[in-house]
Amino acid sequence: MVRSILTLILLLSFNIYSSALQKPFMDYVLSWDGESSVLEVELTYSATQKDSTAFIFGDPSFGGQNDIFNVIKNIRGTDPEVVKIDEASRRITIYHNGAKNHRITYEIEGSLPVDKPTTTPQTELFRPVISKRILTLVNMQFDLTITDQSNPLVSYSWRRYPENLTYFNSVEPSQTDPSKKLTDNYDNLSHKVYFVMGDNIGVQEYNVLGVPYYAVTTKKDEYENNLQADLSPFFESYFQSIHRFWNDTEFPFYYLAVTALQNNQKEIGGGGFGMRNGFVMKLGRKFGTRDRYVTAHETSHTWIGIKIILGENSFDHQWFGEGFNDYATIINLANSNIFGEEDFLYYLNEFTLKPHYESQVKAAHNDSIAANYWTDHANYGKLPYRRGCIFAFYLDNQIRLASNGRFTLRNMLLDLYELRKEKKKDEVLTVNDFINVGASYLDKKDLEEQVANYMIAGLPIDFRNAGLIEEFHLELIENIPKISLSEGADLSRIYQW
């Protein structure tokens, strides 16, 4: 009897100890019939707060939040819990009322307005695409953001889904069975999950320097694209180029997803967003030169803009996060022969130098960019891209000249990357770090003044006093710099690694 009591006490103690160690969780179960525009979501979760749990739906920085509660609908708790919704703050609060188990159900509406089926999901990125036989979905479009500081275990699985559709997910791309659960910590998965299902979807796997890469595309569209063929040069040359540029192949996988959505109006372009280990593009036209650039720029953000950021966030110094990434993009496009001489010079001159030197806000202070980025995007939105790209081109030339061609901007960026890896996770990379690293290649005082004048104060670089390597020729047309290649110069020799 005593032994039985002791055994019972031990078992109870073990259960209490196990419960104390059990990690908080969020378990999503998704359902879609393959025909309708509605995704059904069931979320079972553990409560870190005793009285209530609050979630946020949607992300204001993810484009278009005007009618967010026409996308998430029919939000219901389970008795005795009560749900309260604050539409202004997008907050969904569940009052537990003593309940031990916690579950909420809701629907995501993915139908497109009849008059503008493609414009809406491109300009309002929070809208998923859910229509007959095709679904493209990122978790910002259907899941709930936690408001506490916990890092729960998050899982996704599909209870109901159409058979015989191609399925791709960005958590474990090799897993092709929707019913199998995908699991990871919230901090790893938050804003990084992408699902595709459809009978017009093709998935092709590549091996890029030992890293699995996936091309996810629509097979047919009314723009007569052959997207797998359009994307193949990226897998065959561009991704190899940029991995070699950074001496970095430490990736579990990468995916490039381009879906051309059906449209009943004129071609309207392409837009997209970066995900962890991937880039998603929604295309509304024939895939062309501009789309090749966008694809290259966004995938290049894997390094500058994600792994390497100056300041607390990407808005602090977008001249680096966007502008230096832009320069890395076009020189890797040149290195991989996706951009020839004409494409390279057209982007440098017509998309960068000319509009920057003609801009009314070209001399705006760096601190003013974030404040005006969304309210005056036409003027301020491209400013850090152009300003930083021009400075990167300038610095690349100065480093080459100072070292008689032994070093380039790439060497400086690699040193900066190594410094980032040496820092602790919560330490930021600063402008001073940028200057100190650059001082190995250029005079430190000169570099300090250049950053302060050109990138922070916003003064345009005076190319009349800027020396360029002999492969480049500079002319000023109405005070606007224009770059050309000198006779016999070869981009593939200028940009090689």
Structure overview:
- The chain has 497 residues and is an alpha+beta fold.
- 34% of the residues lie in helices and 25% in strands.
- The protein contains 14 helices and 21 strands.
- The chain has helices spanning 2-21, 119-123, 186-189, 227-246, 289-300, 318-335, 341-358, 367-372, 377-380, 383-402, 409-422, 431-438, 444-457, 491-494; strands at residues 25-31, 38-45, 52-57, 72-77, 82-86, 91-95, 102-109, 129-131, 134-138, 144-146, 153-160, 166-169, 182-185, 194-198, 201-208, 211-218, 254-260, 269-275, 278-284, 472-477, 480-485.
- The strands form 5 sheets. The protein has a 6-stranded mixed β-sheet with strand order 4-7-2-1-11-13. It has a 5-stranded mixed β-sheet with strand order 15-16-17-19-18.
- It is globular, with a radius of gyration of 26 Å.
- The N and C termini lie far apart (77 Å).
- The relative contact order is 0.08.
Keywords for this entry:
21 strands, 34% helix, alpha+beta, 6-stranded mixed sheet, 5-stranded mixed sheet, 497 residues
The amount of helix comes to 25-40%
What is the residue-mean pLDDT, rounded to a whole number?
89
Query: Could you tell me how far the N terminus lies from the C terminus, measured between alpha carbons in angstroms?
Result: 77 Å
Radius of gyration, in Å, reads 26 Å
Structural class estimated from helices and strands: alpha+beta
Largest sheet: number of strands, sense, barrel closure: 6 strands, mixed
Low-confidence stretches: 12-20
Report strand order across the widest sheet.
Answer: 4-7-2-1-11-13
Strand content: 25-35%
Shape, please? globular
